[in-house]
Amino acid sequence: MPLSQSQLQKLGKRLKGCVTAADLRLLDDYRRSFLAASAAVAEAVHASTGFEASQRPAKSTQAILEKLQRQTTHLGQIQDIAGCRITVPDMAAQTRALHALLERFPDGAVKDRRAVPSHGYRAVHVVVKHGTCRVEIQIRTALQNRWALLSERMADRFGNAVKYGGGLDEVQGLLQDASQCVAEVEAFETEFAQLEASLPHELAGDATRVSQSAAKIEERLRHARQRLNDFMLSIPERLELR
């Protein structure tokens, strides 16, 4: 039988203390109960956005235990027991995908971590409900995903605390710098896309000025992309990641 909210709250409290084998079995049963909801949401994401969703059907028991230790929320309030992810080309596509998902899931709760990153992590999350289960949909750009994969790799090498602002200062500094480089590139991409969208109107006024503005933004974007690429490629050697 499904656990009630009261039972989940009590289980979560016990898991913060002395963990027993019986409670771990209960936790494993609980996380597996999200499998069908995760698959259904992934299909809806693909149908709504056109992007194939990679599934994380159920958060591992270890990851859930660590989250319970980090946060004050109880087990039944954790919103990313199950989830899926799509990776889109850029921020314009990211916003379009978000709007498409909100049309499909109008009650979805949005967490936009682009303007205010979480320890350098930038993405858009939408938490939706399928039946009684909450499922988290992550929308990342290709650059945001590249940063997230780097963070995962550093966490594997230097400890999971890296993903949550902990660990070595040098590692945190590099992740923050990389995140800022990604944000700079994506800001230029957005500015350039906005200028392109306005071209039909602007060209009726001063075509030369518009052309010069576009060329300047494109040059800044090219340099920002090169700086980001060089920086990302230098990180493994600087941290002796092999």
What fraction of residues sit in β-strands?
5-15%
Tally of separate helices: 8
Fraction of helical residues: 55-70%
Number of strands: 5
Which fold name fills CATH's third level, the topology of the largest domain? Beta Polymerase, domain 2
Features:
flat, five-stranded mixed beta sheet, alpha+beta, Beta Polymerase, domain 2, 242 residues, 8 helices, 12% strand, 60% helix
Structure write-up:
The chain is 60% helix and 12% strand. It is α+β, with helices and mostly antiparallel strands and 242 residues long. The protein folds into 2 domains: 5-139, 2-Layer Sandwich (Beta Polymerase, domain 2), CATH 3.30.460; 152-238. β4 (124-130) and β5 form a beta hairpin.
Tell me briefly what this model is.
By secondary structure, the chain is an alpha+beta fold. It is 60% helix and 12% strand.
Question: How do the helices and strands line up, and which of them pair or pack?
Answer:
Layout: H1 5-15, H2 21-32, H3 35-49, E1 54-56, H4 61-70, E2 82-88, H5 91-104, E3 109-112, E4 124-130, E5 133-141, H6 142-158, H7 169-202, H8 207-238
Parallel strand pairs: 2-5
Antiparallel strand pairs: 1-2, 3-4, 4-5
